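Name: Glucose-1-phosphate adenylyltransferase
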Amino acid sequence: MDHRKGQPLARDAMAYVLAGGRGSRLHELTDTRAKPAVYFGGKSRIIDFALSNALNSGIRRIGVATQYKAHSLIRHLQRGWNFLRPERNESFDILPASQRVSETQWYEGTADAVYQNIDIIESYGVEFMVILAGDHIYKMDYEIMLQQHCDSGADVTVACMEVPRMEAVGFGVMHVDETDRIIDFVEKPADPPAIPGNPDVALASLGIYVFNTKFLIEQLKRDAATPGSDRDFGKDLIPYLVEHGKAQAHRFSSSCVRSATEAGSYWRDVGTIDAYWEANIDLTDVVPELDLYDRSWPLWTYSEITPPAKFVHDVDGRRGSAVASLVAGDTIVSGSSIHRSLLSTGVRTHSFAMLDEAVVLPFCHIGRGARLRRVVIDRGVVIPDGLVVGDDPTLDATRFRRTDKGVCLITQPMIDRL
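Structure predicted for Glucose-1-phosphate adenylyltransferase:
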């Protein structure tokens, strides 16, 4: 197909989202759901960012590979992402690990999650594959990365983010030459290689890859036939192509989507309780680093039909109010005060309760007189009247999961044990 006539490459690409991850560092938040299905920002889920990026970039064929505790994720995808139509050359496939290749086999690694669905990918006849992780918070135009992939003639293009060199120890780091060709790939190095000409900065892989489809399928088959492979992009395929092919780095700063208010390139892995809490609370800033109000790059999700949020009671000491907070629909703030918090859909807060820097997931009830500070409350939790969290670190740590930074995760089983 000749793309020189100005046709967007995204129209001939498939986005393949790897959404099987457990996200064990989120502890009880992922006891009943996969990490990509964890709620974020009041009414969305983490996976909506990768999917919205694909849609906003012009990609109309999307596949999502699911594995760990996938029910709530699949339900969300069916409700919120069922508008792509085959008759418009669009498709949306949910691809659970279903023993399609072997009677005993789950997806063994990220590459295997694509390999087991090669027949489905081939049936669409797309020229490019954009491989995405389903568990990061960011806005990115994949069309720009596709264009670079074509222009450079690379076998694989890897999206990378510039990070302070010694912060890169937790990432896969790309060692590049002056042309951003990747000459070495090191996983979580103690001494990360710097960017040429910039000794304090390293390039960390974001787990976003672009391949020509035909080439990717050849490589997946080669890898599947290789004894001892972990069947993983980061561990096997990318290092092999760095050594035997042409791997090119794509800098996230060149394709990061920013609104007029967004200064920097925003990308977050919300894989720990602290990081998850911080990213949600950051949204309450007057000018947040991540702009959810940018209509030119909307965050698509399943939008429940809900009544508006409501604030009731107007008596001194019993005034329904929220300041510097995000409050989703179907929430009733009844005689309680909310400060720098995020209340998801369907939350009820009762009289004399106080919330400060709280991330409250859908359908929670906060009892009368409860005082909660620096907390994440899981979906559907009923907080008893008068409960105080955030004043006594020692007591909090015996009752809830308390992080090093003093954030408490509260789930219903923890409340039931009180």
